[in-house]
Amino acid sequence: MRFALNHILAPKLPLEEFFASARALGATEVEIRNDLPDVVGTVAPEEVRTAAEKTGVSIISIKALYPFNVWTDDMAKRAAKLAAYAAACGAKALVMCPLNEGKAVAFDVLVASLKAMKPILLDHRLTGLVEPLGFPVSSLRTKKEAIAAIRAADGADTYRLVHDTFHHHLAGETEFFPEWTGLVHISGVTDPIVAVADMLDAHRVLVDGADRLENIPQIRRLIAAGYSGPFSFEPFATEVHELEDPKGAAKRSMDFVSASL
Description:
By secondary structure, the chain is an alpha/beta fold.
């Protein structure tokens, strides 16, 4: 497996230390963020590129452009700025997340947003990684709808999907699209009480034997169907962020996933 690390796994680690930790764990691919931690807003892209080259990692993506499916003049400016940063720091892609506030977004508006974003991505030689969010309040919950919109926007050469095991489970989606998948995010939920409809980012921990999201069956299905890209750990739970040894915890989760397959 190609394990990767999202910086949210250890948001307290300075950038270069995070990159070095990934290498120490045998991962050569990482994701940086513009929220937690806000690398984009605090570190010059040239410094990010230099740190990546020094530690020997490649940057899969920046997360995230939000809400990409509500296209306005402001969104166009933010998209162009983030794409320029991604290109300058050496990232290969931008993760694009839909509106997640309980408001519907029409399919035609989604398609128009993808069409508007396409030239920005092409100008900066980036892939757009569309990540459906499975929350009940999300305006784009399934990968199937995302693919339909990408096709309608003539974006098959520009866009791929993020298969997030958490959001796949929340959406109740049963179809897998390995040929469309550019990145897989993995995290687990171990709280035995919370209902699926009530699961939030705060419940997302590292994957272990108590996982309720069926990460292992999902990963098996993706690999068996031909997916060979990175599997990036993306836990949002505070208890993970507060760990004194996030590298050790990530190693245990990597070992569990590998042994379970």
